């Protein structure tokens, strides 16, 4: 594993722990809100998409009928990944909050801590291989 790959892999859990640490700031603080919002919209999704992206991107993207855009495949994969990260994050946040509500254990700190631990676990998982 190279150093840039390790940094990319550990960035979502680091953002999660930064958001947990930001909870010590006063309520309504812009730094606290920014840290939590950035993590909740990108952290869990980035860690989870990193795990299964190689297996889902096994086939090349089909470009338009015209061949004027030769970089379509690379850019479409990047766009697909950029769209999946926040959508997967929002889905994971929703499922986590719903599960804690059903267990009568909901609090913002618990959701944030649980998602940080999930993100950390996902960062340590190996990537899937294309079949």
Automatic annotation (TrEMBL):
Residue ranges spanning the membrane: these are 33-53, 82-102, 108-125
Tell me the keywords, alphabetical order: Membrane, Transmembrane, Transmembrane helix
Protein name per Swiss-Prot or TrEMBL = Uncharacterized protein
User: What organism does this protein naturally occur in?
Assistant: Streptomyces chilikensis
């Amino acid at each position: 594993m190279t150093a840039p790959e390790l940094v990319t892999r550990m960035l979502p859990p680091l953002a999660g722990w930064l958001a947990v640490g930001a909870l010590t700031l006063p309520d309504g603080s812009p730094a606290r809100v920014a840290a939590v919002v950035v993590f909740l919209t990108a952290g869990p999704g980035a860690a989870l998409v990193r795990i299964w992206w190689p297996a889902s991107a096994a086939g090349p993207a089909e470009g338009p009928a015209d061949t004027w855009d030769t970089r379509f495949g690379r850019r479409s994969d990047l766009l697909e990944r950029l769209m999946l990260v926040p959508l997967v994050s929002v889905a994971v946040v929703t499922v986590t909050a719903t599960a804690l509500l059903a267990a009568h254990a909901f609090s913002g700190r618990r959701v944030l801590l649980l998602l940080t631990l999930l993100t950390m676990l996902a960062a340590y998982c190996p990537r899937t291989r294309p079949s």
